[in-house]
Amino acid sequence: MSEKIRKFFSLLKKADKNKKAQFYLLLLFSLFFFATRLPRLNNDVINPDGVNWHQRSEQFVVGLKYFQLEKTYQHYHPGVTLMWVTGIPIEIFKQVTGIRVYDVSNFLSFHLVAKLSVVLFQFALSILIIFSLSKLTGFLKSISVVSLFTFEPFFLGNSRLYHLDVLVTLFIFLGLIYSYVNLKEPNFKNSVVAGFFLSMSFLTKSVAVGLLLFVVFYTGFYLIINKQGKKAFSTTIYLLLSFLFFTFLFFPALWKGLVYYISLIFKEAERVGIRKGHGQVILGEYTRDAGVLFYPLVLLVKVSPLVLIGALMGVYSYFRSFLSSKKFVEKMKNKLSNFGLYLSIFYLGYFLFMMYPTKKIDRYMIVIFPYIAYLAYMGYSGISNYLKNKNKNKYFSYVLTILVVVFWIVPFVKIYPYFFTYSSPLLINSVNANNFLAQKPFGVGTVELKETILERYWDKDDRHPSLGFYDTKPMKAIYPNSRVFDVRVYGTKNYDILVLGVNEEIPGKVKDSLSYYFEEDYTVWINGLEYWRIYLRKDLVGN
What we know:
This protein is α/β, with parallel strands linked by helices. The chain contains 22 helices and seven strands. It has helices spanning about 1-10, 20-35, 50-65, 80-95, 105-135, 140-150, 155-160, 165-185, 190-205, 210-225, 230-250, 255-275, 295-300, 305-325, 330-335, 340-355, 370-390, 395-415, 430-435, 445-455, 475, 510, and strands at about 280, 285, 465-470, 485, 495-500, 515-525, 530-540.
């Protein structure tokens, strides 16, 4: 048996030239992809933004059906690709089942349709990335890089959300791949394909307009210094025109008001993303502008040691060759056509730019995971080649397997299905990680929370107990609306049970109430954290 296994893995190493090996690798990738994404997909997380996207996707389809095209603009992100991907399957689900309106009894069914649509689309994009990247790097390197970010626990957790971040990550990576192909072989066809993915990136999240600017300027600069001025002009024009064409084609609101909606996207992005800020707790202190240390902390806490260690080694081995050269400028000119440097300039630019807006969220670093995975592959590949030259490569595969088991498989089992709450073992445990970078509730375990409340506190001869939350959207999706209250708005007499998510404090108005106080009664634990604390209302009168 061991001999057969050895031969099987020996075959996989020949994947660059062996179609049978490629088939087996794709089969393994597909099996692991769906095994880590499909189980409990409908009831692991009901993120508040996902509840919003249900409503937005529904209105998007209404706009298409009744030619009310202004309704296809729903948000400044703008999330158009997500609404195409999920809005149509949900509409088909409505037509097939006869269910027309969301309510607490059917929300999870709609949620499953939406999330399943996103997962299947992500799978299709991932396979496309594998084949597209393989033309530049070889099949084995391509599928290794894609696997390194696809099965990263935090990336995996985000891929199970009804949200935009993984979708824009995949589109951006495809945009970089095809724009690099166009850089090396500039022509009309390659420009159109690249322009398509640049457009899809922007139609997912408006921040991806930075990818368009990067590609246009880099392509023009590269062709000009290589004395292809006419080609630089025509290629950049093709890129811009194809970007505009596909953006206009897939975003029907622009048919009604091109200038109005484009300007609205960027005005709202500037207002919400740059000026408004976002609450975070870092090193135990609350802030609405997390500063320049936030994203380095995110990478420390949310990237597994398996990939982080490999990426650091990749940085060292990849840049050592020309950073130490006396002919640095000359080498840089030659390296401009290098795919690794092409990726490096974009992703470093993205990382630095994201430090500027006051709205900082850990999910925004998902975009650079493909690059970190690329560096990690370079790092481990470099070590493997070094040991092979020294005839000491015998145990490298065993060490790598141990790292995968310790830093991937063990966390998978430990925190299943709440991969979104992942924190690096480098910080010992989730409690220590939470002290560095506070975990957001984000609707994780909302279904489990509801079941716990009904099991412990619901008298079946009485109505549902009334609940107080900071963020009511996730629970309102699956619990009677009239029984869920925002604790920042309503007083203590409105709800019987106060529910606080991880890192949420009892509101001041609750503490200062002269009629009632709330006593902690039960905790729903997730990934070693007191994720949902349940408090029961007690009468102060007479005490």
